[in-house]
Specification:
The protein has 485 residues and is α+β, with helices and mostly antiparallel strands. The protein contains eleven helices and 23 strands.
């Protein structure tokens, strides 16, 4: 590790949108954080701990386990500074965040029994967290939640449920301070790589009433509760796969009692889960149910079943598309399973397609009806069930790992050797947008990244050019990328 030990640590390669709270959370498990300086423009920060020992423990721990923030690896080393002198007027926001965190830490002295002084935690917070899981591509079990949240204190009870088509949980700690620390460290983190994002708030409830111990709810203080007639547990083979998956959540924490582990699970592990996820479906959304989406506020002059098939096909295998005859700015889209419809909804609702912000919700229809034989519906309904363009037919396919929100940067693959950068720049500029940057992959010229100037232009280019014939029997494959150039 560079430099002589110092209680000031230099943190590099931070993602652009990272917050002070997330940086402070890196240091919390190792001791009191006494100062922070964020250099937003340089994607760097300085974090000062109360003692040199705490800093050494933190550096040693993170040299064994690469820390990640928002799915990006970051780098931590000793700073040349022995202490941070920050100009408080410039650094007010960071100082305010730090004070709030320190107030929580100060109250974290062990308090006997349940006589927690409510006023100690300001403002009085509930020991119950409400957790929503966004972008839920793999199932998240009660045990996974228990394992992640136990790092911050004893978890007494968990209830999971699906509300507004989102998987949610209520989780109760013995002490509001533990809830506060868990929220601080975990809000916005991903459980698996690039998906299953935790959104955490305090619940208005202060105590959960659990009637049954099963795969939907559990009271860890009362092992005697009946299992009720809860839904059957996961298929045993899949449950075993997930037991392996979740063991990865507990990265070496032995170094520091109660330390945070980076939550993102490596992609190889996620591939196994992807195959399972296709079969399990989300709790509360059976693999067969809720496969049909209603898309509204479409540009009716421009939209076609094919363009919807291509865009929604980024998130799942589209089976059928029907533009409504009497309301041509709306369409029904049937996906292969409930997971895929959920994924398409979470990624595409609110995006711009042909100049209009589209709305995507779950439809009450179970299937999209095809027109009766001999009836001409002007090409508004199309069956894509046997399309060769489905991206997710192969279980465990790499495509499961490369599902990202719409972004201005596109990932291109299957480029023949004869096609040069200029050819591709011209091709993409012809979709009506501006090509800002282009880069072939170093090891493999069959692939490249291409950046348009806006997400809307990238969506348009993907619709127009995915499966475009570049000659030599090479059809271009276009996806959204999480990288930037």
């Amino acid at each position: 590790m560079d430099g002589a030990p110092s209680r000031v640590l230099h943190i590099r390669k931070l993602p652009g949108e990272v917050t002070e709270t997330e940086v402070i959370a890196l240091g919390l498990p190792f001791g009191k954080v006494t100062n922070i300086l964020m250099l937003k423009g340089k994607n760097q920060a300085f974090l000062e701990l109360a003692t040199e020992e705490a800093a050494i423990t933190m550096v040693n721990y993170y040299s064994a386990v690469t820390p990640h923030l928002r799915n990006q690896p970051i780098y931590i080393q000793y700073s040349n500074h022995k202490e941070l002198k920050t100009d408080n007027t410039l650094n007010q926001r960071a100082q305010a965040v730090l004070q709030a965190v320190t107030a929580v830490q100060a109250t974290n002295a062990p308090i006997s029994g349940t006589a927690v002084s409510e006023s100690a935690v300001t403002p009085a917070q509930s020991p119950v967290l409400r957790i929503i899981i966004d972008n839920m591509y793999y199932p998240v079990t009660l045990d996974v939640l228990h394992q992640i949240f136990s790092k911050f204190g004893a978890v007494l009870k968990i209830i999971t449920f699906t509300k507004n088509n989102q998987f949610q949980a209520l989780l109760q700690y013995g002490d509001p301070v533990n809830a506060q620390q868990a929220k601080l460290a975990l809000d916005g983190q991903n459980i698996y790589n690039a998906c299953c994002t935790l959104r955490i708030d305090f619940s208005k409830l202060v105590n959960l009433n659990v009637k049954y111990n099963n795969d939907k709810s559990r009271d860890y203080t009362r092992p005697d509760l009946p299992s009720g007639d809860g839904q059957p547990a996961l298929d045993p083979a899949i449950a075993a796969a997930f037991a392996k998956e979740t063991s990865l959540l507990g990265l070496p924490v032995a170094a520091v009692p109660g330390a945070l582990s980076p939550l993102a699970i490596p992609n190889a592990a996620a591939a196994a889960a992807a195959a399972a996820a296709g079969r399990v479906g989300m709790p509360g959304v059976s693999a067969g149910g809720n496969t049909v989406l209603l898309v509204s506020n479409l540009n009716e002059e421009m939209v076609t079943p094919q363009s919807l098939f291509t865009l929604f096909g980024v998130y799942g295998d589209v089976q059928r598309v029907k533009i409504l005859y009497n309301k041509k700015d709306s369409a029904l889209i049937q996906m292969a399973d409930g997971n895929q419809s959920q994924l398409a909804m979470s990624h595409l609702n609110g995006q711009k397609m042909y100049g209009k912000i589209i709305r995507v919700t779950l439809s009450k229809h179970q299937t999209v009806q095809l027109p009766r034989e001999g009836l001409d519906d002007q090409g508004l309904t199309k069956d894509f069930g046997n399309s060769p363009l489905h991206r997710f037919k192969k279980p465990g396919s790499k495509n499961f790992q490369n599902i990202f929100p719409p972004s201005a940067t596109l990932h291109l693959s299957n480029i023949p050797p004869s096609v040069a950068e200029d050819d591709l720049r011209t091709l993409f500029a012809n979709t009506g947008g501006t090509v800002k940057a282009f880069k072939f992959f170093q090891r493999d010229h069959k692939m490249a990244l291409l950046q348009m100037s806006t997400v809307e232009e990238a969506i348009q280019a993907l619709i127009d050019l995915h499966n475009y014939n570049l000659g030599e029997n090479h059809h271009l494959r276009v996806s959204f990328s999480k990288s930037t150039i």
